[in-house]
Amino acid sequence: MGGMFIDRAALANAYVSGLKEDLNIVGNQYNILVTCLSVGYIIGQVPHAIVIQVVAPRIWFPLMTVLWAGLTMCSAATHNFSQLAAIRFFQGVIEASTYSGTQYIIGSWYKPQEIGKRVGLFSASGMAGTMFAGIMMTAIYQTMNGHLGLPGWRWVFIIDGIITLPIAIFGFAFFPDLPENTKAFYLNEEERRLALARLPPKNPEGHKIGFSLVKRSLLSLNFWIFTMFWVIGGALEAFSTQSCMLLWMKTTDRFTVPQNNNYPLGITAIGIVATLVTAVAIDATGKNGPFGILACVLQIIACVVLLCWNLVGDGAKMGAYYLAGTAYLIQPVCFTWATKILSRDGDDAARAVTLYAMNGASSVLFSFWGIILYPATDAATGFKKGTIAMVVISALLAGWVFIVLWQDKRTERIYGAAVAVQDKEREMGAQLEERGQKE
Questions:
Q1: Is 124 helix (H, G, I), strand (E, B) or coil?
Q2: To bridge 78 with a disulfide, which of 39, 83, 93, 366 should be the other Cys (CB 3.0-4.6 Å)?
Q3: What's the pTM value of the predicted model, to 2 decimals?
Q4: Which residue ranges make up each domain of the chain?
């Protein structure tokens, strides 16, 4: 996952390090490149959710990683906007397998009180890839620019693809699949039984696909509540995901290329810390809602500063963008909460479809959100339209937190009682079996 986020960040860094001029990127074409990946990402979501019910994840995920690495290296060979846009689209289709797929696997192996730290670590690894991209871009620009006749930004795509391939090989060898069908060589039979026994009961129909899956997903309140939850939650990250600080710095001509690449890394660093701290706190307290509200409040504070664009200096603007980086904490809030609630009915296929739909729906918004509200042409004036939209998003998300809280309590009442009955039945069965062995 980190490698894929390196590529996302590499596009922004490459844009300010020569790609813009070499490929003659003009107007809003940069935003269109971002959108091309998003469109592919949207199209690929639900198909991946269905495929992993049929094809073993230990095969599917590494295979997608190999294909993605190949396309990344092909990005280095592009010579115009159209070629790069086509590659970005197909990368999006392939990349769609990864984020929600990993959330699905985490929810399949860990108990509710263990999910937060794993989701946080996974999300932070993606952000670390973003940060590494900035550092790597600076190093390559300074040391490899012109090597073998290639500009530095082309070397970034080549190296990014190369370093991703060993990850795919590792996945083919070590990925564990699901507790109920794992063939991992490093788990013995007792460990496999324990992995399954420690989790909520599974629905016997939980891996069935076809029309029944459509009904189990689309007729569920969970599907609609959590899809909208991440649509709004994903929009909360827009200042960071749209590279607003980087694009603004490019317009001022007051910063060098290394500064353009390095200063925005602070946003990612803050996002990593906020994500990990929040993830640990979620597991420790068992609560998600307060941290969702906190994320909204911090974004509103950043917006207040940015709405005073002409009254504040560069330091205050940077400070606001750094504060906006805390929005990344919404990832463990949303996906930990969703996974906990979706796991209660034991329907793995419906859980997978919902998790993928969350990401897909968020990407639908993302595909035009940046072009309309955060175009590169608005960078010099502080993205005023986008800042006002962020205030609205923050207020809307704060309200949606209470809807999710209601659904949490509702499903706990419904499925908590059923799980208690099943646990009692298993306990009685074990006692009868033990009594029979003694007799």
A1: helix
A2: 83
A3: 0.83
A4: 2-429
